[in-house]
Amino acid sequence: MNDRIARPSAFDTVNRLFDRAADLLELSEEKRTELKTPYREMMVRLPLLTDSGEQKIYKGYRVQHDNSRGPMKGGIRFHPEADLDEVRALASLMTWKTAVVNLPYGGAKGGIQCDPSELSDLDLERLTRRFTHRMEGFIGDHEDIPGPDMGTNARVMAWMMDEYSKFHGFSPGVVTGKPLELGGSAGRLSATGRGLFFAVERIAPEIGIELDGATVALQGFGNVGYWAARFLADAGCRIVAASDVRGTIAHPDGLDVDQLQQAAEASGSIMAFEADGVRKLDRDDLLSQKADILVPAALGGAIHEHNAGTLQCRLVAEGANHPTTPEADAILAERGITVLPDIYANAGGVTVSYFEWVQNLQQMRWDAERVDRELREVMHAAYDDLAAAAQEFDIDLRTAAFVVAIRRVAGAARLRGMH
Ligand code: GLU
Fold this sequence. Notes:
Elements lengths: L9 H15 L4 H8 L3 E10 L5 E12 L5 E7 L5 H17 L5 E7 L8 H15 L8 E5 L5 H15 L22 H13 L11 E5 L3 H12 L3 E7 L2 E4 L6 H11 L11 E3 L11 E4 L18 E3 L8 H9 L3 E3 L1 H4 L2 H15 L5 H26 L3 H20 L3
Parallel strand pairs: 3-4, 3-5, 6-7, 6-10, 10-11, 11-12
Antiparallel strand pairs: 1-2, 2-4, 7-8, 8-9
The structure holds glutamic acid (GLU).
């Protein structure tokens, strides 16, 4: 969902952000190399005999980036653009993300290069089971714990849990984002959107935004976008524009999030939504819509040097992973636009995954109220850590997030010694 012109390596881009913070921390070259180099990388061949009798070969990936602070954690993405470089970048972002919100985890990410919308349910299940079979020796509730990401959901997590359990006995803690019936947590589905809302709620008064009546432009109407919009609308925000792969829809009085969702469910796109005063625009017009808060919740690289100058917002709250390129970051900083960086703003998902894992290990259940309360505490406490680092070095919140994360990971790695 972007119009990138050239495509730099996503992993290099993350490491540029890492280096900016590492410079401030005066980290040695050796330490930088150690912290950037993934712990383990896997590519697996996934043959599939489809429902229709076709023989296909897919590629699956899992990159385990760092385990200094605990077992590695991160989603599994089913997407045509999932390749080793992208998965590696996302795995390293998970290391920094879990450290920013101080979860006792390292980082990992996985994916299968496929378009899940083109696969039958049975093919999707077979592919998921084949992938889990290949990975079964390398994941585990104290080793590496996959979770959901783009193109995967609770049903996929249930298949992964079941397949893994064939080899290791009933193991609900090996994946998170499971259905409630199989040890999933209350609040996991909405967690990334809710966490993003808590981050926005925390920073809004600091930058003079009154949420009641504030306007929001939302890029991407998937799970993260939908829930973020729901919570922002519940707090009185007006969603004046929203987009999905097919286009942008705008209304100055605000769009009804549930009606958009109904349109998307019925037709596959929010563009089917009709009401008086609604304007239909191109997909890429979303970013330049005037709104107090812009929430990019689609693919990486959406805000880049060629469109950062057109943004008309005061706050960017990153629901997606790496939606803003470093070049765009610099332009936004110059224009005085505050950015709540991905490794903080979208950490609500992995935080509730952590709560789910804790519940699984303890064989306990938390109610939804407890999940929400503890998530709010985590998001607000992490903001305070970011704000303190931003002040200490006089830097933006993204660099501050990397400073907080690198300090935690480097500190743990140092104490563990050569591991
Ligand atoms: N996919 C989510 C992320 O990028 C969460 C992963 C998880 O719950 O393990 O943070």
